[in-house]
C-alpha cells in the first residue's frame, strides 16, 4: 500500500513526464495529449498483462490507482479550484448581457438534453436485449447532459471563437454542472426508490436551495474576501485569501447542502471583476492570476491523465461496448436538439453569433465530472453499462470533438486565424 505522499509523487512524476513527451513528440493540446498518453499507457499495460500473465507491473499500478477515489478527487478536490480559476477570467459585463442565454442553456438545455438521452438509451438498450430501466436511463441523462467546464475551458484556449459565442460557451459550462448535479441527485433518488423524490415540491426545493443558495453563498464569501483584499496591498496574503475563499466556500456549501460548484463560480466572477478593479494593485493582480493559471494547468493535466489511466481499474465488460456505441450519437442528438430549442425560444430577444448551433453542439465536451458521477453509482446492475456509456462519450467528445472544434469554428463561425476575436456578431 502506497503512502499518500508516494502516490502523489508518482502521479505528478508521470504527469510531468507525459506532458514533456506530448510537448516534444505528439504536440497535441496539453490536456488532450495527456489523456491520449494515459489511455495509451493503460492499453499497453493491459496488453502486456494478456501476453505475459505472470508480470506484476499491471497489478501493481492498478492497485496504486485504486487508492485514488476518482469521485472524491474530482467532486470534493480538484473541481473547486478549477472552477474558480476559470471564473476569474469571466468578464461580468459580457456575462450579464448574455445572462438569459446562459441561464437557458444551463437549465432548460440540460433538462431537455437529459430527457432525450434517457429516452433514447432506454429504447436502444431494449432493442439490443440488454435493457436499462427508464429511471436509470434518466440518471445517465443527468450525468452526461451538461458540458464539463474543465474540458470546455481547456478546449476553448486553442480555438479562436467569436466573443459572443465564447461567453455563451464559457458561462454555460461554468453554471450547468451545478444544475446537473442537482438533477443527478434527484434522478438517483428516484431510481433507488427514495420516498418523495419524484414530488414536484421536493424537486423545486432542491433546485432553489442548492442552486440559489449556492449563488448567494458565493456572493457572500466572495464579498468578504473582496473587502479583505481591498484593506491591504500584499500579494502573498491576497493569494492566501483567494485559496481560503475557494476551500471555505466549497466546504460551507457541502455542509449546508448547497451547490459548491455554483458558489465558487460566483465567488470567482466577483473577485475576477470587482476585486481586480477595486481591490488589487497591478503587482497583486499579476501574482493572483499567475498563481491560479498555474493551479489550473497542473490540475487540468492531472485530471486528464487520470481519465486516461482509469481504464486500468474499470474492468469493462466487452458486451457493454454496444451501449457505448448507442450513447455517443444519442448525446450528440440530445445536445443538438436542446441547443436548437433554446436558441429558437430566445432568438426574438437575443442575437446569436453565426455558427452558434454547430459550435455549441460540437463543442459540448464532457469530462471528469461525468466520469466521477458515473463512478459514484454503486449497488446496481445498471452501473456497468452506464459506466461504459459514460466513458465512451467522454473519450469521443474529448478526442474527436475537442480536436476538431477549431475546424468546425473556422467552417461555421467564419473566424480567421489571428483575426479579431469578435468575428461576425449576429446570425
What does this structure look like?
With 427 residues, this protein is mostly helical. The chain has 2 domains: 4-66, no CATH class; 70-412, Na+/H+ antiporter like fold (Up-down Bundle), CATH 1.20.1530. It is 78% helix and 0% strand. The chain is built from 18 helices and no strands. It has helices spanning 4-26, 30-51, 57-66, 70-87, 92-97, 99-128, 134-144, 149-156, 163-191, 200-230, 235-255, 260-278, 282-309, 311-314, 321-346, 356-362, 368-375, 383-412. Helix 4 packs antiparallel against helix 17. It is globular and about 65 Å long. Residues 415-427 have low confidence and may be disordered.
Task: Please name the defining characteristics of this protein.
427 residues; mainly alpha; Na+/H+ antiporter like fold; 2 domains; 0% strand; globular
Give the gist of this structure.
With 427 residues, the protein is mostly helical. 78% of the residues lie in helices and 0% in strands. The longest helix has 31 residues, at 200-230.
Largest sheet entry: none
Name of the CATH class of the largest domain: Mainly Alpha
Proportion of helical residues: over 70%
Shape: globular
Number of helical elements: 18
CATH fold name of the largest domain: Na+/H+ antiporter like fold
What share of the residues does DSSP label as strand, in percent? under 5%
Enumerate the spans where pLDDT stays under 50 for 5 or more consecutive residues. 415-427
Per DSSP E runs of 2 or more residues, the count of β-strands stands at 0
Distance between the termini: 58 Å
CATH architecture of the largest domain: Up-down Bundle
Question: Radius of gyration, Cα only, in angstroms?
Answer: 21 Å
Amino acid at each position: 500500500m502506497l503512502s499518500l505522499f508516494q502516490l502523489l509523487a508518482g502521479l505528478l512524476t508521470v504527469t510531468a513526464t507525459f506532458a514533456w513527451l506530448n510537448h516534444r513528440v505528439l504536440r497535441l493540446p496539453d490536456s488532450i495529449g495527456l489523456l491520449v498518453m494515459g489511455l495509451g499507457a493503460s492499453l499497453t499495460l493491459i496488453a502486456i498483462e494478456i501476453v505475459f500473465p505472470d508480470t506484476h507491473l499491471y497489478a501493481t499500478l492498478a492497485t496504486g490507482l485504486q487508492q485514488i477515489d476518482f469521485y472524491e478527487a474530482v467532486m470534493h478536490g480538484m473541481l473547486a479550484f478549477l472552477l474558480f480559476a476559470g471564473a476569474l477570467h469571466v468578464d461580468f459585463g459580457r456575462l450579464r448581457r448574455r445572462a438569459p442565454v446562459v441561464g437557458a442553456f444551463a437549465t432548460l438545455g440540460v433538462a431537455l438534453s437529459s430527457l432525450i438521452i434517457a429516452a433514447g438509451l432506454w429504447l436502444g438498450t431494449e432493442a439490443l436485449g440488454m435493457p436499462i430501466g427508464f429511471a436509470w436511463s434518466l440518471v445517465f441523462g443527468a450525468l452526461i447532459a451538461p458540458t464539463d467546464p474543465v474540458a470546455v475551458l481547456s478546449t476553448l484556449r486553442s480555438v479562436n471563437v467569436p466573443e459572443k459565442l465564447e461567453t455563451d460557451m464559457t458561462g454555460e459550462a461554468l453554471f450547468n454542472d451545478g444544475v446537473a448535479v442537482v438533477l443527478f441527485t434527484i434522478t438517483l433518488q428516484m431510481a433507488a426508490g427514495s420516498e418523495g423524490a419524484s414530488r414536484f415540491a421536493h424537486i423545486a426545493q432542491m433546485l432553489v436551495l442548492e442552486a440559489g443558495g449556492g449563488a448567494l453563498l458565493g456572493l457572500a464569501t466572495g464579498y468578504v474576501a473582496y473587502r479583505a483584499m481591498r484593506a491591504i496591498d500584499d500579494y502573498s496574503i491576497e493569494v492566501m485569501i483567494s485559496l481560503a475563499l475557494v476551500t471555505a466556500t466549497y466546504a460551507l456549501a457541502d455542509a449546508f447542502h448547497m451547490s459548491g460548484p455554483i458558489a465558487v463560480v460566483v465567488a470567482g466572477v466577483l473577485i475576477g471583476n470587482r476585486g481586480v478593479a477595486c481591490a488589487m494593485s497591478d503587482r497583486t493582480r499579476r501574482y493572483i492570476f499567475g498563481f491560479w493559471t498555474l493551479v489550473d494547468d497542473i490540475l487540468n493535466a492531472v485530471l486528464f491523465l487520470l481519465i486516461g489511466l482509469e481504464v486500468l481499474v474499470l474492468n469493462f465488460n466487452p458486451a457493454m461496448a454496444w451501449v457505448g456505441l448507442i450513447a455517443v450519437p444519442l448525446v450528440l442528438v440530445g445536445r443538438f436538439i436542446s441547443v436548437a430549442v433554446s436558441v429558437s425560444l430566445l432568438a426574438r430577444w437575443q442575437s446569436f453569433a453565426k455558427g452558434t448551433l454547430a459550435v455549441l453542439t460540437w463543442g459540448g465536451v464532457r469530462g471528469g465530472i461525468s466520469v466521477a458521477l458515473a463512478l459514484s453509482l454503486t449497488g446496481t446492475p445498471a452501473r456497468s453499462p452506464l459506466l461504459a456509456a459514460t466513458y465512451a462519450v467522454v473519450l469521443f467528445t474529448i478526442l474527436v470533438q475537442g480536436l476538431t472544434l477549431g475546424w468546425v469554428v473556422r467552417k461555421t463561425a467564419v473566424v480567421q486565424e489571428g483575426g479579431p476575436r469578435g468575428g461576425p456578431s449576429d446570425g
